[in-house]
Design a protein that fits this description.
Chain A is an alpha+beta fold. Helix content of chain A is 32%, strand content 24%. Chain B is built from 26 helices and 17 strands. The chains are: A alpha+beta, B alpha/beta.
């Protein structure tokens, strides 16, 4: 198992389009990927947009990305990089 | 006595938030938002459970096909940035959490497919309803949208509706797919009970120049399809069964959406002369392909500002290739013919190109963006220059360099462009002559305007950024909206200096910020010496009507008084009093900027509010 924490930096948070990008990224890997709120406020299957949206991760929320599988490290790093990049959107200064 | 509309019904007024400026008179077209209200519940025989599952899967396939088509259409019309919402819808539709739960419910409860979708959907929505963050909670409308589509597919309905020529869409909440499914050419305005600045409907309406008012409580319940309705999306006023006088007043202000108010091809093409015979040229600002139609329709003399960064967002942030750019610019050249188009180099921040370190840019508006980014990422500049030079063989194209702060920026960019020209000639590729202009939007460029004018072929004044940089006000920050003052004397002096410098150097100058799109401000700009203005195409008819009635001498006099004002308030007061006194028929009190209290909010609501990205 491999895991890493990451903070949501784009101003609008994990909204529908951002969540879609995250899910598309996650489905590229074989391992089972989970995204959890670091504050224990919820956990989601990273390959299900409906559960990712239910995390209600606004800007500033700390998330933990967890993966178990043959490509666990790459999967977690790819998802974290996407979150850190602000999904290519406006980032809160 | 209360006023009555044409059908004798009493005029009724609603107030909302104007999210896309404009005005329109038309007939109500009610658009139902999400799921149909009534979903029946039936317990099916064990033998029919399979049939319900099959119906559910068929509905999923139909909904999927619709979404794929919709996504493609939105990509074409609006670019991938807006279309990406449908990718989210597709993922929702395919989400195992939805499909799996619905199947399980059908099997366990022996329920009909409709009921299973409704129960599972309601459970999902209940989760989102508790979300505290406004923006994220608003996203539950996307889930509702998908559920509604699925239910409609189960009933075999198509959700798109035929629109009449003068449709004003009235909805409880206008969902993104409803907006994308619309035939934009027929929509005069959009009004919804719910919604805010960040709703997709608002963003798309702004992109297409369709007047829109949201947050109009309870209108949907009272409006019937076919009712007459007047929309004032400057003040956020809605009138149902409007009285004749209001209809006429608004019709005169509608930005030409109504075919009757639309200038005929010839009228639109006739030179615009002021009352005393000075020619003013009006061009269009263009970003989305959906706006191309408006260039001719509203009588624009070509495109005064093409925001090429659209090509970026259309490709999801990938640098468009030389050929992709060439095709886009060639289309622009063919569209605008002899009038031509001015293409602004990619006006992007460093984060968009992966150059520089976005996380270390603490002040992106002052960072590695626009011309600076083009000079840093020379490969991108070279590709764009080649594409424009090649497309210029098809028509008149010019290139505008954004965010020039020093003449050296111009010289460096020119060297690269000249280099590519030489190369293309060497390669035997057909190219056209292009003029190169500088955006005047950074105060330092104003201070060296006289010298800068000798190094470029024209000036483009971007008033939005000029105000932002000159007054040190972040346009996207609502907290400082009251300091964003287009009529600040320092702004007016800068415009005058730049325009005069261009005139003295015998090069053209064009003002292409939002300021040019209001008749009162446009009059001041002309008074300051501007002879070419570029604006959202839909604004052209109203600006044209105003400028045709003024005299230059008087406009100069009023602009002169504004220049001499000490504060922005004073300048605005001069505009309000003097324009109305000089040309009462052109500037009735309602057409002038509102007096202090309401003004900042309404201007900000139209121009500076947050946009979803």
């Amino acid at each position: 198992m491999y895991e890493r924490n990451v903070i949501v930096v784009n101003r609008l948070g994990l909204h529908a389009r951002a969540a879609a990008k995250l899910v598309r990224a996650a489905t590229a890997f074989r391992g089972g990927l989970r995204v959890e709120r670091a504050d224990g406020g919820g956990a989601a299957d990273a390959k299900s947009i409906l559960s990712v949206l239910a995390l209600a991760a606004a800007c500033g929320t700390e998330l933990r990305v967890v993966c178990t599988g043959p490509d666990e490290r790459e999967a977690v790093e790819a998802v974290c990089a996407l979150v850190e990049s602000g999904f290519g959107e406006e980032v809160e200064a | 006595m209360s006023r009555r509309g044409r059908t004798g019904k009493r005029e009724r007024k609603w107030l909302g938030v104007a999210v896309s400026e404009g005005a329109a008179v038309g007939r109500v077209m009610r658009v139902h938002g999400g799921a149909p209200a009534q979903v029946y519940h039936a317990t099916v025989d064990a033998s029919d459970v399979r049939r319900e599952l099959r119906r559910f899967h068929a509905a999923l396939r139909l909904a999927r096909r619709q979404l794929v088509t919709l996504k493609r259409r939105a990509e074409h019309l609006l670019g991938s940035e807006h279309a990406s919402i449908f990718d989210a819808h597709l993922l929702m539709l395919e989400d195992p959490k939805l499909g799996g739960d619905v199947e399980k419910y059908i099997l366990d409860e022996r329920a009909n497919a409709e009921w299973a979708v409704k129960v599972v959907g309601d459970r999902l929505l209940a989760v989102y309803a508790n979300i505290k963050d406004d923006y994220l909670r608003e996203r539950s409308s996307d889930v509702e949208d998908v559920l509604g589509r699925l239910l409609a597919a189960l009933s075999g309905e198509s959700r798109s509706s035929r629109l009449t020529e003068d449709a004003v869409l009235v909805a409880e909440e206008l969902l993104p797919s409803a907006v994308a499914e619309l035939d934009f050419a027929h929509v005069r305005a959009i009004v919804s009970d719910a919604g805010g600045w960040t709703s997709h409907a608002a963003i798309i309406a702004r992109g297409l120049g369709i007047p829109a008012v949201v947050g109009v409580r309870d209108l949907f319940r009272h409006a019937r399809t076919g009712d007459e309705i007047a929309v004032d999306a400057v003040r956020g006023e809605i009138l149902l069964h409007p009285a004749q006088a209001i209809r006429e007043e608004l019709a005169s202000r509608t930005s030409g959406r109504k075919p009757a108010a639309c200038p005929t091809h010839d009228a639109g093409r006739a030179p615009l002369l002021t009352g005393d015979g000075v020619e003013i040229i009006l061009r269009a600002n263009v970003e989305l392909p959906a706006e191309f139609d408006g260039v001719k329709r509203y009588g624009a003399r070509g495109v005064g500002l093409y925001r090429s960064e659209f090509l970026f967002s259309q490709r999801g942030g990938r640098v468009p290739s030389e050929d992709e750019q060439f095709r886009a610019y060639a289309q622009l050249a063919e569209l605008t013919g002899d009038d031509g188009a001015k293409i602004r180099l990619f006006d992007l921040g460093g984060d968009k190109l992966g150059a520089g370190e976005p996380e270390t840019e603490r002040n992106p508006a002052l960072g590695l963006r626009a011309i600076r980014l083009c000079l840093r990422r020379e490969d991108v500049l070279r590709t764009q220059a080649r594409a424009v030079l090649r497309a210029a063989a098809r028509g008149r194209l010019d290139l505008v360099l954004p965010m020039i702060s020093d003449i050296d920026d111009v010289r460096r960019a020119r060297t690269v462009i000249d280099d590519e020209r030489t190369r293309l000639i060497g390669e035997g590729v057909e190219i056209g002559a292009i003029k190169i202009g500088a955006m005047i939007e950074v105060p330092s460029a104003v201070f060296v305007a006289e010298k800068l004018a000798r190094e470029v072929d024209f000036f483009s004044l971007g008033t939005n950024d000029l105000v932002q940089y000159l007054l040190a006000v972040d346009r996207s920050n609502d907290e400082v909206a009251e300091w964003f003052r287009s009529l600040h004397p320092a702004v007016l002096q800068s415009v005058q200096r730049a325009v005069s410098a261009a005139r003295d150097a015998r090069i053209p100058s064009i003002v292409c910020g939002e300021m040019a799109s209001g008749p009162a401000y446009a009059t001041v700009l002309v008074g300051l010496g501007a002879r070419e203005l570029s604006m959202t195409a839909t604004a052209i008819p109203r600006v044209r009507a105003a400028l045709a009635g003024i005299e230059i001498g008087a406009a100069e006099e009023i602009a002169g008084e504004c220049l001499a004002a000490s504060t922005a308030d004073e300048a605005e007061e001069i505009v309000r009093l003097r324009l109305g006194a000089r040309w009462p028929q052109l500037f009735p009190p309602k057409a002038l900027p509102a007096p202090k209290a309401g003004r900042y909010n309404s201007e900000q609501a139209v121009r500076g509010g947050p946009t979803a990205s």
